Amino acid sequence: MALDYGRRRIGVAVTDPTRTIATPRGVIERPKRGAPAAALPRTLTALVAEIGPAAILIGIPFAMDGTAGTMAEEVRAFARALGEATGVRTIEWDERLSTARAEREILAMNLPQAKRRQKGRTDEMAAALMLSAYLRGVGAGDAVGERP
Predict the structure, then answer these.
(1) Which residues contact 73 (CB under 8 A, 6 or more apart)?
(2) pLDDT (tens digit, 0 to 9) for every residue of the chain, 148 residues total?
């Protein structure tokens, strides 16, 4: 499972049992604007319980020079809270430029404008792209582990 954390929405992607295909799974709305990162939406913890992932990949928005700024620390706090609440290990993933890649992928799909602009479309696509990159890195048959 992969998550693209945002202050308004969290993009979700999942993989198949063979860990070869990453699929967008929608978005989870955050509880309130300005809520602390550790305020986990109930719908997210319920989804984690339903899916039962081996691990949760969380995109960390590092700066272009590789440093972790305020938003990266916020996402790390969210990841810690999620891991503690669900008992599922979280794995950090460098998500630099994932939103730009997601927007290009959505444009390439030739969807009608209304579908392209649907709230959360970019968030779930970014999560799927991160998960796909992770799966390619570890290999479909490998055990789920830290980033190679």
Answers:
(1) none
(2) 999 998 888 999 999 888 888 999 999 988 776 667 777 888 999 999 999 999 999 998 876 777 777 888 999 999 999 999 999 999 998 876 666 665 666 566 565 555 545 556 678 888 998 998 899 886 544 444 443 3
Question: Quick one: DSSP state of residue 31?
Answer: S
Strands 22-29 and 9-15: antiparallel
Count of CA atoms in the C-beta half-sphere (13 A) of 125: 21
The pTM assigned to this predicted structure is: 0.76
Give the count of alpha carbons within 13 A of 52, CB side only.
Answer: 2
Residue entry with tokens 């048959």: 141
The H or E element containing residue 131 is helix 121-138
Burial readout 49-86 (b: 16 or more C-beta within 10 A, e: otherwise) = eeeebebbbbbbbbeeeeeeeebbebbbebbebbbeeb
Strand 89-94 and strand 55-60: the pairing is parallel
Q: Check: CB of residue 37 under 8 Å from CB of residue 77.
A: yes
Q: Are 62 and 74 in contact (CB under 8 A)?
A: no
